[in-house]
Design brief:
The protein has 20 helices and 18 strands. The protein is of the alpha/beta class. Helix 1 packs across helix 20, helix 11 crosses helix 14 and helix 12 packs parallel to helix 13. Bound molecules: adenosine-5'-diphosphate. Adenosine-5'-diphosphate (ADP) binds next to helix 1, strand 13, strand 14 and helix 14.
Length: 488
């Protein structure tokens, strides 16, 4: 495979800063590309938290053509890897408390358009070798709306390089009022429905979807789904128009971070042949969440953003049945205030069965994977989803809705798939209470009544391999296609 020079553009990367799956991908795909002999550098905003964790930061450049002189480029390495990291350092935009997109109270930063426009201009300067780095990528790989303006700004330079845009979640558009288009001084050719305009406003994600040489998303099923009105968030027409440029590549996972045999967050390690540690982790998890230490109730886990996408309302709807069937449930997440409050209320009502931790905790996320018997992911849509993949490796049988990456990674347990030793979890079709409850009931009944089959599900799941190697090769093919089609 040819060696490319790749600028990987992201608004979050694990372990520097993470709000969701994009950080996990950005933290592991570039290293996997490097292992395929690609010259890859990551570029991201210099958030306060990220600056503190980045290793060996030095000044890379003070001047970038087209970017205010107060913006600096810092260079370091992504911790735990040899991947070079560029940070766009503009303290007025990025050096502040709170999250990358929201203030400490959970409201979007009022200047998000300015922040990510500035970021895009800095990326564009680097991509065009106008940042005093003496380095010219031939692929600029952008991710989600925060880097959506980059392919648009690069569009007038088709011969120099090609752009790839990956959609990690089509629901987030980076949508702003039309007046921002002027105040950001974006080139006038970018306005219009064939450009960044969307229902009279300014859409950052359209920059990627309209102008990138190739578009990808993070699972083959989601790549199909987003071409339909139900999943398209108003962009299905555009995606159908560009269907020949759209593909789905399943996310890989980093088994160095997610390996129950070595996981530093777990008190007790285990593997496919020695599962005793998992039972001990279950006890430890029950204690940590203040649930009674009992072996008989199946323990369900859920980790994720508490938003409608993730089907949290469906989870709330089955809580009375879970309690009646003596099932325990632990939840870790944060998000909509309404869901947070309702979950906390349920935990108060059913202290022997339901426990909730509102917040973000890498350690607790690992401990839930390590200690729970089953993992709930009843998402309304799920571009890829990572937790079900982690769950498989941790012997935590996933219960998922048949959508996006969930459909591509979990094999439903029924007579045929069990006989073929292919089954890895429980899959249901409709985002409705009855469907979720039926799937959960099926899981509970195998857990309680068919221990041999349960062990088989665990073992088959733990043997699945979703490491990056395969997916990285698909990205290399995608880059090749982007180079062939550039500017077309
Ligand atoms: P999304 O990107 O839609 O949030 P994914 O399943 O693709 O969903 O990725 C979510 C990632 O974020 C996983 O690694 C998950 O463990 C992690 N995560 C989500 N919420 C939390 C939380 N509250 N604490 C710790 N990790 C979390």
């Amino acid at each position: 495979m040819a060696s490319n020079t790749i600028l990987f553009v992201t608004s979050e990367v694990y372990p520097l800063i993470k709000t969701g799956g994009l950080a996990d991908v950005a933290g592991s795909l570039p290293a996997a590309l490097k292992a395929q002999r690609q010259d890859v550098r990551i570029i991201m905003p210099a958030y306060r938290g990220a600056m503190r964790k980045a290793e060996k930061l030095g000044f890379a450049s003070f001047r970038m053509e087209g970017v205010p002189e107060t913006v600096r480029l810092l260079e370091g390495r992504l911790p735990g890897t040899s991947v070079r990291l560029l940070l766009v350092d503009s303290p007025a935009h990025f050096d502040r408390p709170g999250g990358p997109y929201m203030d400490p109270d959970g409201h979007d930063w009022a200047d998000n358009a300015e922040r990510f426009a500035l970021f895009a201009r800095a990326v564009t300067a680097v991509a065009l070798n106008k940042a005093e780095l003496d380095w010219q990528p031939d692929i600029v790989h952008c991710n989600d709306w925060q880097s959506g303006l980059v392919p648009a700004l690069l569009a007038p330079y088709p011969k120099r390089l090609s752009s790839v845009f990956t959609v990690h979640n089509l629901a987030y558009h980076g949508f702003f009022e039309a007046a921002k288009f002027q105040s950001l001084k974006l080139p006038s050719y970018l306005w219009g429905v064939d450009g960044l305009e969307f229902h009279g406003g300014l859409s950052f994600i359209k920059g990627g979807l309209v102008f990138a040489d190739m578009i990808s998303t993070v699972s083959p099923t989601y790549a199909e789904e987003i071409r339909t009105p139900h999943f398209g968030h108003g962009l299905d027409g555009l995606l159908n128009h560009r269907a020949e440029r759209l593909t789905g590549i399943l996310n890989g996972v980093d088994y160095k971070q997610w390996n129950p045999a070595k996981d530093p967050h777990l008190k007790h390690h285990y593997d496919i042949h020695h599962l005793a540690g998992k039972a001990r982790n279950k006890q430890q998890l029950q204690t940590q969440f203040g649930l009674p230490q009992r072996t008989s109730p199946p323990l369900l886990g859920l980790v994720g953003r508490l938003v409608e996408q993730k089907g949290i309302d469906l989870v709330l709807s089955i809580i009375p049945q879970l309690v009646r069937h003596d099932v325990q449930l632990v939840i870790l997440g944060s998000g909509d205030k309404r869901f947070q409050a309702e979950l906390q209320q349920a935990a108060k009502l059913h202290p022997g069965h339901i426990a909730v931790h509102i917040g973000f905790s890498e350690t607790l996320a690992h401990r839930i994977e390590g200690g729970a018997d089953m993992f709930l992911m009843p998402s309304r849509f799920e571009p890829c989803g990572l937790n079900q993949i982690y769950s498989l490796r941790y012997g935590t049988v996933p219960i998922v809705r048949r959508t996006g990456g969930l459909a591509d990674t979990v094999v439903d347990a029924h007579d045929e798939t069990i006989a073929q030793k292919r089954a890895t979890g429980f899959v249901f079709d409709h985002a409705a209470h009855d469907d979720l409850w039926r799937a959960t009931q099926r899981a509970i009944s195998v857990f309680r009544g068919q221990p041999k089959i349960w062990q088989q599900l665990i073992a088959t799941g733990m043997r699945q391999d979703f490491s990056w190697k395969q997916s990285a090769k698909h990205y290399l093919e995608l880059y090749q296609t982007a180079l062939e089609k550039r500017g077309g």
